[in-house]
Amino acid sequence: MEHTPMPEPLRQMVHHLVSEVVMNCQEVLRYTEPDIARDWKRMTLIRATDASDTMDMASMLIAAYCQRTGMAMDTLASYLQTRQQRSRATGPRDADRYEVAGMLGTPLPPKDDQDAQRSFSCGQGYTQGGLMAEADEQRLFTEACLHGLRARLCDDVDALDSYLPPHVAELARKVAGVLAAPQPATA
Questions:
Q1: For the ranges 55-59, 69-73, 81-85, which has the lowest average pLDDT?
Q2: pLDDT tens digits for range 111-121
Q3: What is the distance between the alpha carbons of residues 164 and 145, in angstroms, rounded to a whole number?
Q4: What are φ and ψ of residue 182, in 5° steps?
Q5: 181 near 157, Cβ under 8 Å?
Q6: Sign of CA dihedral 2, 7, 11, 13
Q7: Rounded to the nearest 5 degrees, what angle is found at the Cα of 32, between the Cα atoms of 30 and 35?
Q8: What pLDDT is stored for residue 73 in this prediction?
Q9: Radius of gyration for the alpha carbons in the chain, expressed in angstroms and rounded
């Protein structure tokens, strides 16, 4: 199998699209903060679907290149993981509704529905004392990077304190500070 690097124009486009996704993901996080209560539903959904659509675009560009260079369709379908794809147009599934019910504690799923029970239990894992009660270091770092990047781009580092928990705001300020410092040239 021939190993050639990604063509430069495709590489640049993928980098551009991934950067756009990162900005959309940061907006999703931003709209989860308490000071933006009025628009959180609309904006988290819009930015999350923007991020998803942009990653789909990147995937399809890479897939088109792979197809152009002779990749077999069954291999391409495998790499695109088409078996796990589902349309947003169908709306939330029962599993999604039961997971939210688990997060909120009600309504209880039918006792004889094992899939519903599993989804409900998964949702319960995100509540107080569950899976997401304490932020892991990787998630904390990712959130700080996204918020710090956005604050630097908007030149609004001071605003971080108004909507982030203190430990996340502190890390985000550090990230923004590093982004502001001129980086030494590498040869």
A1: 81-85
A2: 999 999 999 98
A3: 13
A4: -65, 135
A5: no
A6: negative
A7: 80
A8: 95
A9: 21
| C-alpha to C-alpha distance for 147 and 149, rounded to whole angstroms | 5
Least confident among 35-39, 125-129, 138-142, 165-169: 125-129
- Pull the structure tokens for residue 18: 């991934």
CA–CA distance, 176 with 23 (Å, rounded to integer): 14
According to DSSP, residue 88 is labeled G
pLDDT in tens, 92-128: 999 999 999 999 988 889 999 999 999 998 888 877 5
Which has the closest alpha carbon to 172: 153, 155, 156, 149? 149
Element spanning 94, H or E? helix 94-104
What sign for the dihedral angle of Cα 149, 52, 129, 33? Answer: positive
The pLDDT of residue 33: 83
Q: In 3D, which of 9, 8, 17, 5 has the Cα closest to residue 59?
A: 17
Query: Percentage of residues in the chain with pLDDT exceeding 90?
Result: 46
The model's pTM: 0.73
| C-alpha span between 72 and 77 (Å, rounded) | 9
Q: Which amino acid is at 181?
A: A
